[in-house]
Amino acid sequence: MIVIxxxxxxxxxxxxxxxxxxxxxxxxxxxxxxxPQPIDRFGRKNNALSKVALGAEEYIESEYFKSTTKLLDKxxxxxxxxxxxxxxxxxxxxxxxxxxxxxxxxxxxxxGSETDGLSNAILxxxxxxxxxxxxxxxxxxxxxxxxxxxGYQLTTSS
Length: 158
Description:
The chain is α/β, with parallel strands linked by helices and 158 residues long. It contains 7 helices and 7 strands; from the N terminus they run βαβααβαββαβαβα. It has a single domain, classed as 3-Layer(aba) Sandwich (Alpha/beta knot). Helices cover 37% and strands 20% of the residues. β1, α1 and β2 form a beta-alpha-beta unit. It is globular and about 40 Å long.
């Protein structure tokens, strides 16, 4: 499975996702839009991201891609199933989703900004839109927490 992070502002959330991605055996993380990278444009280590990732950013492959929609189009031509995490009228509950181990390798999980979520252009490209069932009054979780829940469910239930 690969992960696509769309316009996530926080170095700490991105670092946490790298660290958690290691636990799930994530193959690669694409950092899109304004999402911070482990190495900045001047070639310097991103210390804030690194502090939380605890070195996972050094061995989990990552790549910057400016346009999330262009990346999704490219991945679709390579046979990837696009799974977006978003609260949407078309979303399905996470606990109803099963992806076989064989298909998990060609799955791209897309997570977006905590304030803006994923755009309609991204959601239109998704093969599945999933949401995390919640019992409280809040409608969302911290993006790194959401990734932990979704990543665990997808990688252990197949």
